[in-house]
Amino acid sequence: MSHYPKTRGFTGTLRPIRLEGDIRDVELEGEVPSQLDGTFHRVHPDAQFAPKFEDDQFFNGDGMVTMFRVHNGTIDFKQRYVQTDKWKLEREAGRSLFGQYRNPLTDDESVKGRIRGTANTNVMVHAGQLYAMKEDSPCFLMDPLTLESKGYTDFNGALKSQTFCAHPKIDPKTGNFCGFGYATKGLLTTDMTYFEIDPQGQVVTEIPFQNKYYCMMHDFAITEDHAIFHTIPIVSSWGRLEARLPHFGFDTSLPVWLGILPRNGTEKDMRWFTAPTSFASHVMNAFQDGSKIHFDVPEAKGNVFPFFPDVHGAPFDPIAGGPFLTRWTVDMASKGDQFHGKQKLSDWIDEFPRIDDRYAGMPYRHGWMLVMDPDMPFEGGNGRMSGFVMNKIAHVDLQTGKQDAWWAGPQSICQEPCFIPRHKGSAEGDGYLIALVDNLVTNYSDLVILDALKLSEGPIARAKLPIRLRSGLHGNWADASQLPN
């Protein structure tokens, strides 16, 4: 019998769904733009069995992939578990066998040494496959249309890293899938690697290097010539795992580092720049400007993750934990290792930044993100596990400074948006945003489509699901030309 913990991570709006199924032609309000033809894949953690430990993390659940197939003005829905090694072993046993989030010391003896990955962090179509990704394990392959699980891959032995990335970038010029791994030679190690996979699915680059210290390396950026890694003091140790503490903790005694690696170089060509402690997880974009490199992130003065508490015992400070879009700049012509400067780009409390991906690693103008506006009324109880009530989807024009937003209403929070070009040749930002909106009172989720540059006008289409989807992490759009026939 399933008895899930009565904790915040497994009750209320975060209660597991565990539902696989299909809906043909989801009920619509408004009209889906007729030229949209493709898929929006996204993923959320959804534990198929109650966790071994009641204090386990919300995001230690099995990956549940959702596909919205958009075509001919309609939207179809499909949802399937990622059948990882962990999922299969526990399915056969009828109970949880793997223990705490990223702590193999807590696993059942029967699964010692098995891949612990849940493939629950991001999904992206590349080379005709759906990559289901989590940063502590290899890449998992699925069929983009049927969501059939195929299994883990090391790309025919060409990728040596034991881990994959959660936030790849597609180089707009080459079409290469640019990614990285950390703890690539074993848990808690500082070993990292940068890699590229070409449009045919072949590994063409892998550059190993060492990080400054072991920490959560969730995201990164590329420019035309560089891969950029921000090392933030969300750290861990064997002592933490042995004490059964949360895997990560925030260490204010450590500095921030920004590593700049030439994409055609080696570790000896890497430059490291440093700055005082702050927090930054996701990256909006980065680009080159002469000898300078600009790196845009939602940055907070303090820890953003209350579920990864301060290692020195300091209480969580939600004010210091509010992130604001900030531009970090370093000068490759300088002889020192200090940041050239920081520039705040928005006064909104924001996270989950997105761009028009055709401009990844290039000078860009338009960015979108989820915003928490505490001045708006809210009737929905708790928001995300972070405590943030992301009640707006926002746009910032980095050229003019103009900002625009859509408020989801007093009962709802938003999940990460994704940009879709109006057509392949459209100008930067000319297109649509697609995102899930969760009504925390009615307990339903809607998929909304908005004009990306006219957010305040509200959704032009809303697909009304007869269920609630659990808070997801990340997802991406694939044009029909990227999908198998």
Structure description:
- The longest helix is centred in the N-terminal third of the chain and has 9 residues, at 85-93.
- The protein has 485 residues and is an all-beta fold.
- The strands form eight sheets. Strands 2, 29, 30, 31, 32 and 33 form a six-stranded antiparallel beta sheet that branches.
- It is built from two helices and 34 strands.
Key features of this structure:
485 residues; mainly beta; 3 domains; six-stranded antiparallel β-sheet
Quick rundown:
The chain has 485 residues and is an all-beta fold. It is built from 2 helices and 34 strands.
- Report strand %: 35-45%
Number of helical stretches of at least 4 residues: 2
Q: Major sheet, described briefly?
A: 6 strands, antiparallel
**Number of distinct beta strands:** 34
How confident overall, as mean pLDDT? Answer: 96
Distance between the termini: 42 Å
- Overall outline: globular
Give the helix proportion (percent range).
under 10%
Query: Which structural class fits the helix and strand makeup?
Result: mainly beta
Q: Report the C-alpha radius of gyration, rounded.
A: 21 Å
Low-confidence stretches: none
> What is the count of distinct domains?
3
